[in-house]
Amino acid sequence: LIYFLTRVSRAYEARNIRYEALFRLGRHFPETIEEWDAARKIGPLIDGDLFALANVMNADGLSPVCFTRVLYLCAQATPEQLVRGAVRLSNGQVEKLDKVLLVRCFAAQKALVNATLEMYPLVFSQSPECKAETEASSLLDIKCRYDVIDHSPLIDGLSEEASIHPLTKPFQSAVERVRKECQRCGDWVDGLITQEREDILLNLDFYV
Q1: Can you say whether residue 22 is alpha, beta or left, with left for phi > 0 and alpha for psi between -120 and 50 degrees?
Q2: 0.70 surpassed by pTM
Q3: How far apart are CA 75 and CA 70, in angstroms?
C-alpha cells in the first residue's frame, strides 16, 4: 500500500497522497528501539515489494530517514536475493534493486556485521552493584556467581549469533544464560545491548 501511494503521488503530484504515504512510513518505522521491537516481532519479510519501495523512494528522495530503514531491511536479504531480485507478492513479478542500492546493501552488510560483533564484549559485563559486592567478598561468599562461572558456553553461543541484523536481539539467548546465573547482571547486560541497538537505529545512515 505504501508503495502504491508513493507511485500515485509521484505520477499525479498529489501532495495529500504523498503525506499519507509519509505518515504510514513513519508508523511502520518507529524511532525508538522498543517500538521497533514491537513492530518487528516477526523477522523482516524480504520480497520484491520491499525492493520496489526502496527503488521508488530513492528516485523520489522521499523521507531520507524512512528510506534508510527500508534499505536496512533490504540489506537483510541473501546475496542471491540481492543479485537476482525477489518476487513481488503484489503481482508475482521479479523486482531488482537499482545498481546503486545493490552496492549500498552489500557494503551495509559488512558494516552491520561489524556493528553486531562490537556488542560481543557487553555479554561478559558484570553489573556495577555485583562487581562492587564481588570485590568486597571472599570467593566463597560471592552472591553473584556470574563473574566466576565458566564463560565458554557464552562464547560458543555468540559465535553462532553474529548477524547482519543488529537491530534484532542478536544475543538474547546469551543474555538469558547470564540471567540464570544472576538476574541483576542479566538485566545489566540486556540494558547495555539495548542501548547499543538504540544508537545503531538512531545513526542507521552511518551503516547503510
Answers
A1: alpha
A2: yes
A3: 9
